[in-house]
Amino acid sequence: MKPLTFKRLAWICTALAFVLLLVVMISLKVGAVPISVIDLLASLGRVAIGQSDQLPSEYSLIVFDIRLPRILLGILVGAALSVAGTGFQALLRNPLADPYVLGVSSGAALGAILSLIISSRATFAMPLAAFAGALATIAGVYFLGRRGGQVDTHTLLLAGIISASFLSAVIMFLMTTLSGGETRGIAFWLMGDLTSTKTPVGLGWLFTVLLMAIGAIYSTAADLNLLLSGEQEAMHLGVDVPRVKLVVYISASLLTGIAVSVSGTIGYVGLLVPHVMRLLFGSDHRLLILVTAIGGAITIVFADMLARTIAFPTELPVGAITAMAGAPVFIYLLRRRLQ
Description:
This protein is mainly α. It has helices spanning about 5-30, 35-50, 55-90, 105-120, 125-145, 155-175, 180-190, 205-220, 220-225, 230-235, 240-265, 270-280, 285-310, 320-339; strands at about 145, 150. It has 14 helices and two strands, in the order αααααββααααααααα.
């Protein structure tokens, strides 16, 4: 593991932020109505100097009312799912741990759907219900995965997969109680959907909660590094393991709940991005948590751009794109651990 310096941390994060900016610009440019780079830069420049009223109405609608909110939502969702996956993998010491694989995303989706059925008017009901569903699911999976006072990796994964299947069945049952139009909308949302710009709460609030949850996980980064060698060893080195578990489980569940409440269940992001970033930059969580947040944002924005354009005029669910990339990685990691 290379020693982490502030200069190295700043350079890596700046480089990834530049890649994210590049992907955002490309995503703003391409679509059903392509926009030239010159026109796009001119439009962004007018907004930057406070002359947004001089923008052509079609550019204002396409770029700032449709594409930009969708991209910002993708950044939020990608960062949330990636950091949640990093937290679960660190605590469980298992690269296969992921909100989707462990059933946490399904639990959050079930909570969100229940809140819609009970009351669709409460502003914060859906994110809170998704958070409660995610937290209850990871608690149940963790309890089922313990054997002899220790977490058994294979039992934990099996418990997560079974829990996800059971929760998906419950979701399908609840969907039969809804009208046809609502069922079609929820079915598409469950596969990952960033098309709706009307989030339950404002993007500003969501980003604030995102930063607080990521900050809470980052505050345990040094302890997570020690936990890689095992809980007993970490405790001997002075790590308050119960406190670290509580902070990371709650924060990761909150991140998953936020993501699911606004985009549905987008799978394998929390598996794919931490694995790639770990290969590129090492397993020091003081760096890994930050780069996975930016890497997750890049991944979702790019996947959403593909979902909008690859089968035009049909739009694919974002979750279908991430599953096609993440499922092979899951199979590879699973086979490597069984060897």
